Amino acid sequence: MKLVILDRDGVINRDSPDYVKSPDEWQPYPGSLEAISRLHRNHYRVIVATNQSGISRNLFDLSMLHRIHQKMITMVNEKGGQIDAVFFCPHRPEDLCLCRKPQPGLLLEAASRLGVSLAGVPFVGDKTSDLAAARAVNALPILIQRTRPADPREARHEEALTYSDLAAFVDDLLAGAHEQGMAALATTPIIAPG
Length: 194
Description:
With 194 residues, the protein is an alpha/beta fold. The protein contains six helices and six strands. Helix 1 packs parallel to helix 5.
């Protein structure tokens, strides 16, 4: 099975320090929906794994989260693509759950439900917590870094292939150009985030 796992906020759509709390606030980055469509046309399954602590913070409820995800799925479908599943963690960091990235619980659940190993599967995120979760399941960590981060901890990406946006990663993936980088990463020691 050809598979790509995507974080949501900061990868597919614009993130917000105030959280994405409604379908109106969910705004895709230019080219991200088309990138997912290209993956689908090339026989990749696409799943989303996202931290959504706004639920535990009472900023929105499960019904609203489902409406946000339905908008995302519908917009991807309209571009000829498909999202096969969405996995989310509703907890805050202080809840110390096993599903909130950087913990690997969301990815392990996805692997279990799909009946696959995630070894070498690209996991595309925009934070060091995404990279750590990817490494924990032997997935390939891919970092989206649109601008130079203000937080120096987010600038540490020696253990990931780095792209300016999702479309750039998909270009390389479909062209096979990321394979050299994958081979180099396989021999790179893991660097803990933070």
